[in-house]
Fold this sequence. Notes:
alpha/beta
Amino acid sequence: MGTASEELLKHTRDVPDFPKPGVLFKDLTPLFGAPDAFTVVIDDIAAQHRGHVDAVAGVEARGFIIGAPIALALGVPFVPIRKAGKLPGETVSTEYALEYGTAEVEVHAGAFEDHRRVLVLDDVLATGGTAAAACALVERAGGEVHAVQVLLELASLHGRKHLEGYDLRTVATV
């Protein structure tokens, strides 16, 4: 086994023209289907944040796949950040801009009352809109963003600029 970065890149598949022409989609399902490689990545991320966070907030949907095992490894709660209308009960939401419109994400109200230091986790950092919205949502819901962790950063899209002031960590950058 290689490093977390090596295993991630080895198990990431490029899919041209998905979901629309001109987009090169980074498919992480090969990583999720390789337990040994996935374990290397999860263990690496967990080691960086152990003892520093009270909760892991994962962004729908691939942030759930990554966030839940990291929360288990850290022994802290996992809090889902969902698309609007997917959570029952009282929620806090925030809207953000996409290149083709807007989207909205939400979290349960009070999700961070007892879990203040939050690791915000997502799969790919592209333009940065989703990650920035997730951070704003955590803060609106009473949490403090300890760090933003992504598996893969697409450097050419400059998403990092939307996360200035946050401790942004990536497993690999392409």
